[in-house]
Amino acid sequence: MKDNIRTNTRKRVLSGIRANSRLHLGNYLGAIKGMLALQENPDFETFYMVADLHSINVPYKPEDLKKNIRHVVLDYLAAGLDPSKSTIFVQSHIPEHIELSYLFATELTVARMLHLPTYKEKIKQYPDDVNMALLYYPVLMASDILIYKANAVPVGDDQLPHLEVTREVARKMNEKYELDFPEPDQFKTEGHYVPSLTGEGKMSKSVEGSYILLSDTQNEIREKLAKVPTDSGRGDKIPETGGVASLFALVELFETIEKKEDYKKQYTSDGIKYSELKSELAEAIYKELGPIQKRRTELEKDEFYVDNVIQESAKKARDIAGQTLKEVKEKMGLL
Ligand code: TRP
């Protein structure tokens, strides 16, 4: 089959986004834009999933999860992920991920997992819900990646410790069972750092008031920008942190770098009118999101098409995942 020939020569890419809430500008600029770039690069075969199994290790509502899984798929498609070029699937539809992860777990120590920074952060955030799945998170992630023998993983720097675990598992499995897992690397996308609207840290799903959703209307974007804390609009020194710095960064991301420099000059001379800056910025953001939202509305009407994409992609993913799992089970003496 044509597809299999390509599979052998092209490098594989796998990435995923959790389905804990609707996607925001941070996901879009940081992850989805990178996924799109790789999808269009003929050297890569791309697999993009909704990491729903990674979404249930913190408190959640089943009815919300169900909706959010669909939302992420729709956002992927609306943003331009193309099922004729990328395999777009839902993690839990490929149960082989879980099975392989258990086999990997035999090669990882509990102590190693306990020391991962992401685990430590999560147990601080949810001290009453320190569950086994949280500790197991990187084991499953290693399986997500290695089950497709992916070489490149477009993710943010916060995921680097998980990639280190993935490489370690690959090495150990290869040594012990004569397997041929690649040791995957982070694919650094041009994904920008998108600052929080609160002026502190980065835009994040878990910080209320910090983000603009991909689905926000022009009005909602305006309202959210209106709440960004500012100052008098004038001073000797350009603020490098806080709300004003976030606004400048967003101007650069959605308008132009020249525009940002202009505002900076105004800041140290006549002063900035934030109402004007914010209204122009809202318009620029909406200009980029509007077409995505339009496609999304179309897709929402076409449930059959979306269901079909999910089913067909799952078949393709399962086929590859099943082959890897079988190979590992054979080598481990289970088959
Ligand atoms: N852990 C990733 C995150 O929180 C999501 C994820 C799960 C993932 N499995 C993956 C990312 C495999 C890349 C590859 O963003």
Characteristics of this structure?
Rossmann fold; 56% helix; two-stranded parallel sheet; mainly alpha; single chain; binds tryptophan; Tyrosyl-Transfer RNA Synthetase; 13 helices; 335 residues; disordered N terminus; globular; three-stranded parallel beta sheet; 2 domains
Structural features, described:
The chain has 335 residues and is mainly alpha-helical. It has two domains: 11-192 and 303-331, HUPs (Rossmann fold, 3-Layer(aba) Sandwich), CATH 3.40.50; 218-296, Tyrosyl-Transfer RNA Synthetase. The protein has 13 helices and five strands. The chain has a three-stranded parallel sheet. Strand 4 (152-153), helix 8 and strand 5 (185-186) form a beta-alpha-beta unit. Residues 1-7 have low confidence and may be disordered. The protein binds tryptophan. Tryptophan (TRP) binds at residues 14-16, 18, 51, 54, 141, 144-145, 153, 155, 159.
Shape category: globular
CATH topology of the largest domain: Rossmann fold
Spatial separation of the terminal alpha carbons: 27 Å
Helix percent reads: 55-70%
The H-level CATH homologous superfamily of the largest domain, spelled out, is HUPs
Kindly provide the radius of gyration, computed on alpha-carbon positions and rounded to a whole number of angstroms.
22 Å
Which molecules are bound in this entry? tryptophan
Q: Structural class, from helix and strand content?
A: mainly alpha
Number of domains: 2
The count of helical stretches stands at 13
Major sheet description: 3 strands, parallel
Low-confidence stretches: 1-7
| N to C succession of SSEs | HEHEHEHHHHEHEHHHHH
- The mean pLDDT is 93
CATH architecture of the largest domain: 3-Layer(aba) Sandwich
How much of the sequence lies in strands comes to: 5-15%
Biggest sheet: strand arrangement: 1-2-3
Kindly provide the name of the CATH class of the largest domain.
Alpha Beta
Oligomer: single chain
Strand elements, count: 5
